[in-house]
């Protein structure tokens, strides 16, 4: 007798060139997403790299520029951080009115354990010069930006304070294995609490500068533009907004009367999640969900659940609302912006009880 084949979930594909695929978030049952299901966000095609001939330059406003081999980097004291990485365009397709861009649903988010050397360690060895303001990290991925009709590498900067944060790391492992190539191998910047555009993949070089960085992925993209018709009052995308997602039941699912477990995840870019509330009457009343104990530390999401005893048939709108240790609460409506970043309105699904 043949054993039944194990059925496995797949990434949800939005585009192939460049490859943009999201995590099937409803199938994620633990706090570490396996690399095959980790969401993929690219601006260009994948670069060509050789691990054996890989060198990392650190230059700019430093007293002792460095050129480090992978062997050098592996010699420094390492640390492991569990970090949620969320694309700033996560949930973009929920904005009303709609915004242009990759129409991410709820799965442009994943997390796991990243191991590497603190960026601070390397910057201190190179000797940060007086007046240093930002640290620029350039990736190996590049391509044509049609809006500017020029070829650019993917390059971003961090304020010097964020670059020196103890848990901002140059990672070389994900979940105890070398970082998968599609997620930044051999070296990826990991910036906890910020949207994932800051966590530059396939690092090519690091430069310390004493003026603001003005590359297009810093000053055109990843900016909040609050006005539809002009670029006034724009400000940069940085820390992750407080958010939650209902994983079960699914939107527009049919279920039976009886006891059902509503479950999901919640996360924030500031502090930790302190409360998750559930409404099964479209926000008229709220009850506290149970937050999985022992996981509400660091920079990851928390899993939560709520037992729902359904006795009456009909249509229900279930909502989830998170609160963090800084008193931030998910809003009823998201902050609308022209490029569709940072969606974090109260999550909701509709179900029919038969």
Automatic annotation (TrEMBL):
The question of whether Metal-binding is a record keyword is answered with: yes
What are this entry's molecular-function GO terms?
heme binding; molybdenum ion binding; molybdopterin cofactor binding; sulfite oxidase activity
Give the transmembrane region(s). none
Q: Does the keyword Oxidoreductase apply?
A: yes
| InterPro entries linked | Ig_E-set (IPR014756), MoCF_OxRdtse_dimer (IPR005066), Mopterin_OxRdtase_euk (IPR008335), OxRdtase_Mopterin-bd_dom (IPR000572), OxRdtase_Mopterin-bd_sf (IPR036374)
Q: Where is the Moybdenum cofactor oxidoreductase dimerisation domain?
A: 238-353
Instruction: Provide the protein name.
Output: Sulfite oxidase
What organism does the record attribute this protein to? Peribacillus castrilensis
